[in-house]
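Lab channel / #folding
Pinned by the channel admin:
"Please post every new chain as: sequence first, then the structure tokens as a reply. Keep commentary short and put observations after the output so the thread stays searchable."

First post following the new format, from NK:
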Amino acid sequence: MKRRTFFKSSLLTLAGASVGCSVLQGNSTKFSVSQTGHKIEVFSDKIKEQFNIIFSADIHIAVDENLQPPFDDFAKRMHKYGARNADTIIKFSKVAKEKNSKAIFLAGDIINYPSKGNIEIVADAFKKSSVPIYYVAGNHDWHFEGVEGSDNEQRAKWLPILKPLYKTQNQLVDAVVINGVKFILLDDSTYDILPEQLSLFERLLREDNLPKIVVCHIPFYAKGRDVGFGLGNPEWGAKKDPLYKIERRQQWSEKQSPFAMQLHSMLFSDPNIMGVLAGHIHRQSADYIDGKFQFVAPYGGNNFRGKNECLEISFSPA
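Reply from TO:
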């Protein structure tokens, strides 16, 4: 399959094929990126030593069989679609060890609801991995369907219970530096951003000139994509929310907060952000937005249409 190169005005919309792009932005982080199937290579003059990571999302584990009322009702729909073990995480850990990966990043919806059994089986798999696993929550990780309250209220309630899955301190936005590349883990799982997240995100951008990657669950708005690419999407809102009755949650608001729109603008104008790694939509995709890449992971689960797929991403000196 031929490799194709896209320049600044281009948009990558091809997943699973060979693609590439180059970015030159004056004093910014200069980089190039190529993709062949599930393998992605990033090159930059700011990267001094080659390393690689494994990236996945949407494993959707559901192991609890005997939840007590009313949680048995809250979990019943998503339990049907859940993987009954943590084999996918174990598989990715083995792949990462074989490839001498520096880290595994999991971008949300690792479990289908925040029950004790789901959290324990994932936490145990994380502990057994010889490669560090960095996790950020997705919209199902903290959601019991039918529980009253807004998404922000549910997330605030259940995030403390998910704490055993985190290596970072701040569950809403934090960062880890690997071989001189800063990975910013951003919780955008409510399709929105809190003002304190925006403030901390900006601080993480401004405190150094390291090349940066944003890891999150919900992909960012890209022209030509649907509202699943929701953060900063001007079309997102209550009229485009077909699933709220099925998921038994509050309907989306009429539009996103200005904080989400500001973060989208901030991210895609920052001179040192190379791109975004996201999940949520259960299919692999690639976009090129204002000089940044956005790669969405393939479906990571082994239930229904899942194939235990992940992205292998290498970072090398230019």
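NK: Residues 1-19, 21-26 have pLDDT under 50 and may be disordered.
TO: also worth noting, The two ends are 23 Å apart (CA to CA).
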